[in-house]
Write a structure and sequence with these properties.
The chain is α/β, with parallel strands linked by helices and 496 residues long. It contains twelve helices and 19 strands. The strands form four sheets. Strands 12-13-16-17-11-18-10-19 form an eight-stranded mixed beta sheet. Strands 2-3-1-4-5-6 form a six-stranded mixed beta sheet, sandwiched between helices. The protein is globular, with a radius of gyration of 23 Å.
């Protein structure tokens, strides 16, 4: 058995000012994709499962990059054309035995110039090329805005269940297993997408309402003849017709069963929607709350400047408040500012430098900090992920540890959110020795910090990934939409 593996994975924030070109993508072609084997990623999970089952994986192309602005059409067209050509080449490879299935590593929130549904367009094109007989499954991020047309082109739609996404590889395993089951047992699944007109702020499934709702989804997934129940929280930082929250149910053949389960779960989600509204703390309020905790360290996540949602990562709101407060035994990991990181590397460890740090992308995320700092440590920024996507590589570019008063500040060259302790350890910081650990992330940091933190406090300063999602203008989204419109309503068409 041979399974082609390919994907385009991008979380598109349409509110970012600059488009995303092809040069911004990490591009793994052919054999290079095999480097992802053994990592807790979707492609890694698919490759590993194929190896376990004695299936020949046929790597085509995987293109991925940090969340950012709308993808340039030429970039998407290039990747799509290459994937289609690669699959066609393998289909026609009589000597190797053609292909028996296709696995895709997708996101669900891809937006291209002139095309609001990247995944729908790509999956339909692949389906048209391979025909109806070849199974196609895909693994997704749960922050996807999913369409029925996309689901109809696939045989299985597996969103990661967890946020932080520590189960991406496991969902890919299920996607590969479905291809095998379809071939061996000769059946065709059906999938129903139920869209709820609501925008869900970034909500962890490790605790609270997110955990409660996930429990209901998993219980429904255990029902007879149900293959998968995926809860796509949706990606609220985008202005497209498909934006919302989605319950996607795949069964062994009963569309009626899939619809019934999806509508029932959607109704439950709608009834408790108010519980998703977060309490947004200013930088100053977050620092006050942190000071009340007897358990240390307190981790403060600046949710609103999260590179993992498209923000620049160079915001200064929280860091400025920490400096003005004169904090001791505090660290910040990290601010993205290539210019300052390179300046520190040029000066060297032990030097004192005057810099203008952060807020170079726009005015929304604060104003630059003019500081004099001691260069404590330097690092090349090449790290291995320790918690989420464990085992995969992360390149933050040149890192610098600067000391300002009682605060250790890490400065990175490349955009990324903080996933785990890696950046701190790289420059000699043991976070357990600090009272306050500040970082930029919405929820993925929890995978690496929840066991270490005495308390977690969220700071929601002005930024592109603020929890205040009602503040973003909507010109293309379907309306009415909660929490933007009082008239928003969900009608499932069924009584429960």
């Amino acid at each position: 058995m041979r399974i082609a593996i390919a994907g385009i994975n991008h979380e598109t924030n349409t509110y970012c000012k600059s488009p995303t070109p092809s040069s911004a993508f990490y591009q793994y072609r052919g054999e290079k994709m095999l480097q992802l084997a053994g990592t807790e990623t979707s492609t890694g999970g698919a490759l590993d499962r194929c190896s376990e089952l004695g299936i020949e994986s046929v790597p085509i192309l995987f293109a991925s990059t940090q969340p950012s602005g709308t993808i340039e059409y030429s970039a998407y067209d290039q990747f799509k054309t290459e994937i289609l050509a690669g699959i066609k080449r393998e289909q026609e490879d009589v000597a190797a035995g053609s292909i028996d299935g296709v696995f895709l590593d997708l996101h669900g929130a891809g937006v291209v110039q002139g095309l609001s549904d990247l995944e729908g367009d790509l999956t339909q094109a692949i389906r048209q090329q391979v025909g109806e007989a070849i199974p196609i499954t895909a693994a997704f991020d749960l922050h996807g805005n999913i369409s029925q047309s996309m689901a109809d082109a696939l045989d299985g739609t597996f969103a990661c269940h967890l946020y932080p996404h520590t189960d991406m590889h496991l969902r890919a395993v299920e996607a590969i297993d479905l291809i095998v089951a379809m071939i061996e047992n000769d059946f065709r699944p059906v999938t129903h997408v139920e869209t709820i007109p609501m925008l869900v702020p970034t909500t962890t499934t490790m605790e609270g309402i997110g955990k409660d709702i996930l429990g209901k989804m998993l219980a429904a997934e255990a029902e007879k003849d149900v293959i998968d129940v995926s809860w796509f929280h949706g990606f609220p930082y985008t202005d497209i017709p498909e934006v919302g929250s989605h319950i996607v149910v795949t069964t062994r053949g009963s569309r009626e069963q899939a619809q019934k389960i999806a509508k029932h779960l959607a109704q439950q989600l709608w009834q408790i929607k108010e519980q998703f509204l977060p309490v947004s703390l200013t930088a100053e309020e977050a620092l006050v709350e942190a000071s009340t905790s007897e358990r240390k360290p307190v981790v403060i996540n600046e949710v609103s400047d999260n590179c993992g949602g498209g923000a620049p990562g160079d915001g200064t709101h929280l860091l400025r408040a920490m400096i003005e407060l004169g904090m001791e035994k505090a660290c910040f990991g990290f601010v993205v500012d290539r210019e300052v990181a390179y300046q520190a590397h040029e000066a060297g460890v032990g030097s004192t430098i005057s810099v203008t740090l952060g807020a170079k992308e726009d005015d929304l995320h604060g104003t630059p900090l003019k500081i004099t700092a001691y260069v404590k440590a330097l690092h090349d920024g090449r790290l291995t992920m320790l918690a989420m996507a464990k085992g995969s590589k992360l390149n933050l570019g040149k890192l610098a540890r600067l000391v300002v008063g009682g605060i250790d500040i890490i400065v990175a060259s490349n955009r990324s959110q903080t996933f785990d302790q890696g950046p701190f350890l790289a420059v000699g910081i043991d976070v357990t020795e600090y009272d306050v650990v500040a970082l930029k992330s919405s929820n993925h940091f929890r995978a690496g910090f929840v066991q270490l933190a005495g308390k977690i406090v969220t700071a929601d300063t002005p930024g592109l990934t603020t929890h205040k999602i009602a503040h973003f203008p909507r010109h293309n989204a379907g309306r009415p939409l909660w929490p933007l419109d009082d008239a928003a309503a969900y009608v499932s068409g069924e009584s429960f």
